[in-house]
Amino acid sequence: MTTDVTEVTVEELAALMKKAAGVTVDPQELERRVDTPFGEFGLDSLGLLGIVGELENRHGRALPTDAERCKSPRAFLDLVNGALTTGA
Amino acid sequence: MSGRGTRHTAVTGLGVVAPNGLDADTYWKSVKEGASVLDRITREGCEHLPLRVAGEVRGFDPSALIEETFLVQTDKFTHFALAAADAALQDAGLSSSAADSPYSVGVVTAAGSGGGEFGQRELQKLWGQGSRFVGPYQSIAWFYAASTGQISIRKGFKGPCGVVASDEAGGLDAVAHAARAVHRGTEVVVVGAAEAPLAPYSGVCQLGYPELSTEADPDRAYRPFTAAACGFVPAEGGAVLVVEDLERARRRDAFVRATVAGHAATFTGASRWDRSREGLAHAIRGALDEAGCAPEEIDVVFADAMGIPEADRAEALALADALGPHGTRVPVTAPKTGIGRSYCGAPLLDIVAAVQAMEHGQIPPTPGVFDICHDIDLVTARPRPAELRTALVLSRGLMGSNAALVLRRGPGPAR
Asked: Closest-CA residue in chain A for B141?
């Protein structure tokens, strides 16, 4: 794991799930259940799309199109952080 | 729906979100007393519009009634519909019965304007910040189908669903559509309409209607059937019903509050109020025919009451055309003069008033209206006690739709 300042944390993802989709999830629980499908948290595909859009606006760059198709928090964070920390 | 058929459609649940009440009983109490809640419009961003008076739903707290996951992806018009659907299901004693047979419950709503407030917010992001700032829920929240979809998703209903977009009178058409679904074998249909047309964008859209009242005095803004008629006052809110097969309702010992007996609809063109006479009369005859109902059996009429002299005249004449001499004798009422017209929600609220009027034996008055200048017996000032077995509900839309619905008083609690 890199400590790059642009990295999206589990805490930030939990806050985004709340903001973009109205899903309340405790960051520690999200950390524990990081391989649980988003659907089980009540996050639908449009909600994840909204999170992707929010992150793209915050970081001023496009994320891979696969980001909105990620099934779990771990898969999403791995993909997004990989793109943010390696992409210029 | 045919009176000659063996299957009848029972109304077993009522849910209301209206300017004069956030539940069906409060709504009825206000309607029965003839109270008017029309007031100066207070919505942010609407203050400068030439639309001055409206029927606002006040004190409605969606976060107390609906989960946040649904709130973030829906407009206010859907919040009203979700809350009214909950209330109707609870009234019908069906709050938690979908899980065992989800395909037996369908949802039908009518919509006339969709989610204007949500849409405006996202469009402002589009033009203010750019397309990347528009949230994905814009793709579903402001469409006419949103309320049907969200009610069915939230409750897990998987029966036949539909959205009727046929102008204001579509509120009555939706009930007929639901009754047909019941005839085809769907056990229960949640049917209704609620609208939220009092956001700035929605308000501006309505300014082009010549029928819109721009009168600033709430007491004078909506006075159909009088020489002072100056248009209609728009409103928020609406109602949802639970309808089901009458035999099924009896089997489960449900309280059958009314039955849907007949319906018909016609189209006569936008703002062609002279022509709506023929269209409305034809719809009334069709509804009576389907109900197997003679004109003299109609005990009360809930009028469309557009508030435009030409339209009011057409409605009064349509009643005489379709009901004969009974048309000038039958009591007519228009409770909506006290709450405004919530477009497709308006005829649903009239249905709820009609059901409760039949239950209580009271014809609610037409608030704020006196000195009638048409040959109809309009009930004014105070409720009129009457034995009510059959009610006729009429509705017209600004785009030219006309519809009539015949309701029969329910047998009451199961025998």
From this structure: A46
